[in-house]
Specification:
The chain is an alpha+beta fold. The protein is built from three helices and seven strands; from the N terminus they run βααββββββα.
Length: about 150
């Protein structure tokens, strides 16, 4: 028997806007302080570079995409160069859901048996019910999984 891949649809999740703003805010504040409080041209340029770094960080965080398919989780990162990490769902051993206080988002921490990615963080997600769907997908896939891990 093969697992029916169309039982579950693909889920795409991105970090929330408030999470990205909070992560970029400290850099933005530092850059504006450099520009506003310094009279030297060189410090003003440094402040401008820091502001552009904050804008880049905000855009970078907003371009992160977590795609959950019936068999794996794909994490896509990058603006100019894309990096895609893939973790098979049967490798997930434990998970923790943490509420972020200011950003109204959650961080889902996945502990896996993968050597390359032993711990995966899905930061700034706005859907706490995602953990239930991941658990259902793992349990759905488990009986059909013929791979056994020796550690």
């Amino acid at each position: 028997m093969k697992i029916n891949e169309f039982v579950f649809s693909t889920i795409e999740v991105k970090p929330t806007v408030t999470f990205a703003l909070i992560k970029a805010f400290s850099l933005l504040l530092l850059g504006v302080a450099f520009i506003y409080f310094t009279s030297l041209f060189m410090y003003g340029l440094i402040g401008l570079v820091i502001v552009f770094g904050a804008i880049y960080r905000f855009i970078y965080i907003r371009h992160i995409c977590y795609t959950i398919t019936p068999k794996a989780i794909h994490i896509k990162r990058g603006i100019f160069f894309k990096q895609i990490d893939t973790i098979a769902l049967f490798r997930i051993k434990d998970y923790t859901l943490t509420k972020l206080s200011l950003s109204r988002g959650f961080t889902l921490t996945l502990r896996t048996s993968d050597d390359e990615n032993p711990i995966i963080y899905l930061n700034g997600i706005a859907k706490p019910h995602l953990i239930k769907q991941i658990r259902e997908r793992i349990l759905e896939f488990e009986p059909y999984n013929r791979l056994y891990e020796i550690s």
